[in-house]
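Weekly sync, protein design subgroup
Attendees: M.S., D.O., the rotation student, P.L. (late)

Item 1: inverse folding check
M.S. brought a backbone from last month's batch and wanted to see whether the design step gives back something sensible before we order anything. D.O. pointed out we never logged the input encoding, so this time it goes straight into the notes. Structure tokens as presented (324 positions):
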């Protein structure tokens, strides 16, 4: 498929999400779907961060920690210091990236099993810190977080004050979709860049990559920082949408689900986390009707899909396209 056709299809898909979906929701009156679809978009962004660590051959089971940290950073800056929410988005991501660098510098020099073990504990550590630190209000969390304010340039309102909107959920949905599109465009560009090719070489043979002068530790830390940045941004958006953040907002189970989203969609594909998040989120809701058998059926289906489609659901339509 030519690049022009890809761009046209991507533009049509984005137009359908931004215009077509709201029209359908308004026609059916199911405005609650805005929150659901916004959540899926944000979860796919956080999962995309996990995909990056898989891209360098590392298993990341701690993304929930950075989503939790990002949510708290944004909430504290908005409620305590009066910082604009829009400014807290990159600040939350940068704070999470800084934390990941401090953790990654000593750990990412070691074999992958050690990183997997450390990342497995990160979400619980973040939750315990949120319970213990006075600035996070412990188990009470941070509530009544103000809705995002307006953004003006030269007196022209580029983004309205969400508190003045009749339906702020629609506004959150549009922002989440735009962030998701920006995230996956950036990841695709990264995968096709020189750094992306070097990261891919780490998957295949780290010793060979090191022998030709590739700075393995540097690439791992950079990839992990980008991963954590996306987790922080997604967590900050979640805190703003729900107007609250608690130590239990993101748990170890969420970290596992972020990883499963990548497996289910396809580790070899940039769009894998997006598809995996959509299927996992709505698949779980569909199986809710099975009652006590929900978890059993869900787990069995996941195992079968991973065994039958080891390259994920994306491999059904895009065989051999690693960076699709």
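Designed sequence read out in the meeting:
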């Amino acid at each position: 498929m030519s690049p022009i056709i890809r761009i046209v299809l991507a533009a049509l898909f984005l137009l359908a999400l931004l215009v077509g979906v709201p029209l359908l929701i308004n026609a059916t009156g199911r405005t609650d779907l805005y929150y659901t679809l916004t959540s899926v978009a944000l979860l796919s962004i956080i999962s995309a961060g996990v995909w990056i660590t898989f891209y360098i051959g590392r298993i990341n089971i701690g993304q929930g920690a950075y989503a939790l940290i990002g949510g708290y950073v944004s909430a504290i800056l908005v409620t305590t210091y009066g910082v604009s929410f829009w400014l807290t988005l990159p600040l939350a991501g940068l704070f999470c990236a800084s934390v990941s660098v401090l953790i990654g510098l000593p750990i990412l020099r070691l074999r992958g099993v050690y990183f997997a073990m450390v990342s497995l504990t990160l979400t619980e550590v973040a939750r315990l810190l949120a319970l213990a630190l006075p600035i996070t209000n412990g188990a009470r969390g941070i509530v009544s977080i103000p809705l995002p304010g307006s953004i003006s340039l030269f007196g022209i309102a580029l983004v309205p004050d969400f508190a003045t909107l009749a339906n702020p959920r629609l506004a959150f949905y549009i922002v989440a979709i735009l962030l998701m599109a920006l995230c996956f465009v950036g990841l695709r560009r990264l995968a096709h860049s020189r750094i992306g090719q070097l990261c891919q070489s780490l998957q295949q043979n780290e010793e060979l990559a090191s022998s030709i002068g590739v700075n393995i530790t540097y690439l791992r830390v950079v990839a992990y920082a980008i991963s954590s940045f996306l987790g922080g941004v997604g967590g900050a958006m979640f805190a703003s949408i729900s107007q609250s953040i608690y130590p239990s907002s993101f748990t170890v189970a969420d970290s596992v689900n972020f990883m499963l989203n990548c497996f289910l969609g396809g580790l070899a594909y940039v769009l894998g986390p997006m598809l995996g998040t959509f299927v996992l989120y709505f698949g779980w809701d569909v199986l809710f009707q099975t009652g006590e058998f929900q978890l059993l059926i869900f787990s069995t289906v996941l195992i079968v899909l991973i065994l039958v489609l080891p390259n994920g659901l994306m491999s059904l339509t895009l065989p051999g396209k690693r960076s699709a």
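Discussion: The beta strands are 142-143, 151-153, 156-159, 244-245. The chain has twelve helices and four strands.
Action: P.L. to compare against the previous round before Friday.
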